[in-house]
């Protein structure tokens, strides 16, 4: 094929400590324009946004694997007298180990739900072309990427903790999950960049897309009051707190003030979304099955974190810059 891309040559050179490095050379290579001229940035972000959701899913996949791994180990390992049954039971019957395992399951479910909601919004935006679907997809993408990868990191780390000292022994495989997932918080825009995107570009609509989502969360919480009144009330109140934070953010003309609290804001948003999807799962299940019990654990123990995060989100930037560069580096 006369017009095909020429083979890129690789030069193997000796780098630091005598290690070989590869240098790509493009001399004589042929390039083709993809799309329209001057639309390259838009095309790049289409690719990046899909990649961001994919990397978020990668974090969630590792979180699921780490959770299954930890559950299998905790069900098999016996140590000490447990409050369940008689004698020495499996370590999953110890209160703190049970706390970690439930946290791993609940966090993974929340992160997966957010990622799936983002994927649906992206599909609907492509299928309908509707502005609201596009805005929903844009809003959820940084949350799905950052929370999915942060969850992968925290869940894998907790899996090592469940294993105890054995978590550092390679034959268990627990530490491998933690090593594999760590880079996902850096891929396709660091999670700090995702949070800045959320409070910056994604709030340029005056918070309209965020408010629509919060309206849906509160409407569902109202529906859930008849069956799960305590959970529904906590989700509704958390959504209202998040609404106030969104109002504060969009009122800030100083972007540095927004950026200073962007990471805790994104995490608080994910916390509320996670509670919403857990409540939806509880409602769909009915009765008092495992989904209801896991939702109650998330809402009672993990959702309250949103309150402290929102305090940080609305703290402004003054304390970050109170120290001079010289004082900071001393």
How would you describe this structure to a colleague?
The protein contains twelve helices and four strands; from the N terminus they run E-E-H-E-E-H-H-H-H-H-H-H-H-H-H-H. It has helices spanning 40-76, 95-128, 131-163, 174-181, 191-199, 208-224, 229-251, 255-260, 262-285, 290-302, 305-313, 325-329; strands at 9-14, 20-25, 78-81, 88-90. The strands form two sheets. Strands 1-2 form a two-stranded antiparallel sheet. It has a two-stranded antiparallel sheet with strand order 3-4. A hairpin with a 5-residue loop joins strand 1 and strand 2 (20-25). Helix 5 packs across helix 9 (262-285) and helix 7 packs antiparallel against helix 9 (262-285). It is globular, with a radius of gyration of 23 Å. The termini are far apart.
């Amino acid at each position: 094929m006369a017009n095909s891309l020429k083979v890129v040559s690789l030069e193997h050179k000796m780098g630091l400590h005598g290690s070989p490095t590869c240098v790509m050379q493009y001399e004589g290579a042929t390039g083709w324009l993809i799309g329209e001229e001057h639309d390259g940035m838009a095309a790049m972000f289409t690719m990046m946004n899909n990649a961001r959701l994919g990397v978020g899913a990668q974090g969630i996949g590792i979180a699921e694997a780490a959770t299954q791994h930890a559950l299998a180990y905790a069900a098999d390992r016996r140590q000490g007298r447990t409050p369940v049954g008689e004698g020495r039971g499996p370590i999953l019957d110890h209160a703190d180990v049970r706390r970690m395992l439930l946290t791993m399951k609940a966090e993974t479910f929340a992160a997966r739900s957010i990622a799936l909601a983002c994927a649906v919004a992206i599909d609907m935006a492509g299928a309908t072309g509707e502005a609201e679907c596009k805005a929903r997809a844009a809003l959820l993408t940084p949350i799905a990427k950052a929370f999915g990868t942060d969850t992968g990191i925290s869940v894998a780390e907790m899996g090592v903790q469940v294993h105890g000292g054995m978590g550092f022994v390679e034959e268990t495989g627990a530490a491998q999950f933690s090593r594999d997932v760590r880079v996902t918080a850096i891929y396709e825009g660091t999670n700090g960049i995702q949070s800045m995107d959320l409070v910056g570009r994604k709030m340029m609509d005056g918070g309209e897309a965020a408010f629509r989502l919060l309206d849906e969360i509160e409407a569902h919480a109202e529906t859930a009051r008849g069956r799960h009144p305590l959970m529904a009330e906590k989700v509704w109140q958390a959504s209202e707190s998040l609404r106030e934070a969104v109002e504060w953010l969009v009122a800030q003309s100083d972007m540095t003030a927004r950026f200073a609290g962007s990471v805790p804001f994104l995490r608080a948003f994910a916390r509320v979304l996670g509670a919403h999807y857990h409540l939806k799962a509880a409602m769909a299940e009915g009765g008092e099955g495992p989904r209801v019990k896991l939702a109650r654990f998330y809402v009672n123990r993990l959702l309250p974190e949103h309150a402290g995060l929102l305090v940080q989100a609305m703290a402004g930037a003054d304390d970050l810059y109170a120290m001079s560069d010289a004082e900071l580096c001393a």
